[in-house]
Amino acid sequence: MSVGKVILVGAGPGDLGLITVRALEVLRTADAVVYDRLANPALLGECRKDAKLIYAGKGPGGMKQPEIDATLVELARAGHTVCRLKGGDPFLFGRGGEEASHLVANGVPFEVVPGVTSAIAVPAYAGIPVTDRRFASTVAMASGHPAEDEAEERPRWNELTGADTLVVLMGVGALREVTGELIAAGRDPQEPAAVIERGTTPGQRTVVARLCDIADATEAAGVRPPAILVAGGVVGLRDTLAWAERKPLWGVRALVTRPAGQAEPLSAALRDAGAEAVEFPCIEMRPLPPDAGVLTSLERPYEWILFVSANGARAAAAALRATGRDSRAFPPGRIAAVGPGTAAAVEGAGLRVDFMPSRYTVAALAEELPGDLAGKAVLLPGRAQVNPRLRDGLTQRGADISVWPVYDIGTPQPVVPLAEIVGSGVDLVTLTSPSAAGGFAELGGKEAAAGARIACIGPPTAEAAQGVGLNVDIVAEEHTAAGLVDAIIKHAKGRDQ
User: Fold this and answer.
1) What angle do the packed helices 96-105 and 65-77 form, to 10 degrees?
2) List 5, 52, 58, 376, catalytic entry
3) pTM of the predicted protein model
4) Pick the CATH number of 5-116 from 3.40.1010.10, 3.40.50.720, 3.30.365.10, 1.10.3720.10
5) Active site residue 170
């Protein structure tokens, strides 16, 4: 078997949005992933379902450096493409150089995917630019981590005192010693300093004090690793530039349970409000093969064709394409969509939406559909199981209902268990359909998310969530991704008052 290769990948400082496109590409295609403690565990959800996942963090349950080196070589020699996932950037205090040298010595090819380093990103999220021509044109970076052996070179603090901005990574455990050495070496004890804990994540906290007092202030605040120290005049800009922590959902880690490929609108809205969106699909769409009998029934005219989900619109279009047809094969009839998201999917399938209800619910759709429906044919492309509110509402108006089953819903098998993702810290669970509520519960969500708030896109989803034993905290008035985020923000503001 030919030798594989190892790709040293920077996972960034913690915020999922800061991983690079190339890093995601490697994660999604690697045969094996060897990951560190500082890499966000939610990233493992991007891995192939059959990929080997190996935890290599230092400390309990992890590995020592020689074990990591040997594991990388062993996996590559077995012919695997290995993603070595490291927090921040592999070559900035990440031992990437050591691991690369070991690979070369053992004849293993390697590549490097640089990552966004916490030395720059974490201060930026705290409102501290490491350079600013009014205060700083030079930056020095050092590791404050205690040496593991006598051969490890320690920072020469006297050579770093001349930099306008000093960033010390992994220095909380020895902060008093580090600041004492800096001051003894000539660093101004009165200059502003900041210690930033868990930067770029919902757990970010920032403590600001004079350099001579920062160790006391950090200890009093109970700051724990991972955290970094920033010293210099640029720290004084924090009061003006602390942009991230002023967002309404800053500090919230939200689980997005929508199907793979459909989570981005909600995730983007959550990120824009300051939350960290962790995508964990709790349902998956399963297209149904076209049925000849059903396709024949499409040749009859309908008074209305009703789409109650974007999935239904996309699956109907896909079913037609599978038989060599396109949107021209849809039967004559006016088209209605339950809401803006569904309408966009319908129009994306090449159809024009004639009606949308004032409230984006199936009950409102059945109630407000224009015209006399008595004896009129109505087509429902979507799941075989029609929403009872829609079915009952149309039946009461005398409609002749035909169902076109184009997809079904199942529960996916996750790469990483839900309990592990939620256990790493989730404050909020978003549910956007009754099916998502059921899938979340089936995957152990009730037990895993104990203590997290549950936010539902509308009353039917809330009822389904309550039906599987979840305590619902938030129900959106406008049943869209934007409306759900608005409801979450309103709830958060009410809790803070």
Assistant:
1) 50
2) 58
3) 0.80
4) 3.40.1010.10
5) yes
